[in-house]
Amino acid sequence: VSRLSLNLITVDQWSLEEAVAGCAAAGIEWIAPWRHQLDGRSAEAIREAGLRVSSLCRGGFFATAPPGDNERAVEEAAELGTDVLVLVCGPLLDRDLRTARATIARGIEALAPHAEAYGVRLGIEPLHPMLLSERSAIVTLGEALDLAERLDVGVIVDAYHVFWDPDVEEQIGRAGGRILGFHVSDWVTPAGDVVASRALMGDGLIDLARLQRAVEAAGYDGPIEVEVISEALRALPGEEVVRAVVERFAKMQS
Amino acid sequence: VSRLSLNLITVDQWSLEEAVAGCAAAGIEWIAPWRHQLDGRSAEAIREAGLRVSSLCRGGFFATAPPGDNERAVEEAAELGTDVLVLVCGPLLDRDLRTARATIARGIEALAPHAEAYGVRLGIEPLHPMLLSERSAIVTLGEALDLAERLDVGVIVDAYHVFWDPDVEEQIGRAGGRILGFHVSDWVTPAGDVVASRALMGDGLIDLARLQRAVEAAGYDGPIEVEVISEALRALPGEEVVRAVVERFAKMQS
Questions:
Q1: Yes or no, beta carbons of B95 and A207 under 8 Å apart
Q2: Which residue of A has its CA nearest to B142?
Q3: Gyration radius from chain A CA atoms
Q4: What is the pLDDT of residues A195-208, one digit of tens each?
Q5: What pLDDT score does B42 carry?
Q6: Rounded to whole angstroms, how far apart are CA atoms B80 and B40?
Q7: Closest residue in chain A to residue B144, using alpha carbons only
Q8: What is the DSSP letter of B167?
Q9: Which pTM value belongs to this model?
């Protein structure tokens, strides 16, 4: 399980301190915190526990983010010792998808020099199309790569968000060295709430092993983030979630 | 509103007889019934009311449909006097998307000669990717067209299912004469339940006018089906739903 990174939204019932202690106790070596979980002492606490940070979630929301906020996210990533800032690029706010997507492109372009100055790579994460009006107007890996190639940034491949795409394996192959992260969880039926109904790996219909092979064939060999946004998991004690994550991850890698 | 066709799932609180009477009273000229709404007298009742049938919903579900069931759907379409059978091709049942999609292709191929013999055209309707494991493993118009071109059948463009796709206008252009139907409703936020949370045209984020222009530029000038699968609408009296549909449709066309 040395490649397992726990994306801390999975255990958002915990404070960052509790999550750091819980991961260290479970033998997890990597974590990926969200910005709302951070305070001034987080970087030190993570380092002291011997953990590494695979990515910071998240920058983006380019149509609505306060001025300077994405720049601060870049700086926070650097301070945490990760070179990956995940971008959730922001939802469709009205009927004008073209403008929404152009706003996102301009936002990334404006942020890129700051990220480069801090040694942080920007990873555009395409989200499932059902989250178009909730989270992200970038909804396919192909579209994310069109942007990433043009702006010379990276992409994040989250299995839950892209597995449905008939074109996904071809696009993963195209992505090659631009893949800055691979996220896993699972898709269950009935799908329930569009935001927080993900499941642990193995409980659903995503062929995670196949997607992992594709991502690895494209050259990605970094941490694999387990990111399970789930009301059900949030209702459990964090220790129990961590135990299940480690077990499922080990099974997925065997 | 002479192009308005009411897809009768929108008023599923009504029997077919009630829906026929309600549509005729509202000046609607076209309807699209679902198979579960039909009985042996339906074709005659529709004809007697002076209504025409734009399509029959639905054939498909190729992995699970009982033998002969899709052939019967073709015959029912012919009996209703429509030459369009909408295909909802069936969900992903396990982790094997490739096999699910191959099963669908074989199913359509096997059904096509029967449809041709009855003068019925098969329309593959790609459904929103969030319905992959509930309804349809065919989730993009591009994928539907790959199949439709290979098997020489048609496609259905439902705005709700395809509007998110960065490639949708290009694919509509590619579809040309294969477009056998254009369905409208709207996408609201929060998205709620993945199956039955559609909204009336104008209440959400879909640029329906733009999609209609694209479909018309591709050559489609047939009926436009209003298909609003919505728990909220089903709780209203059918007359009220029909009134709102006619009003919204007229506004959409103005």
A1: yes
A2: A166
A3: 17
A4: 889 999 999 999 99
A5: 98
A6: 11
A7: A166
A8: T
A9: 0.97
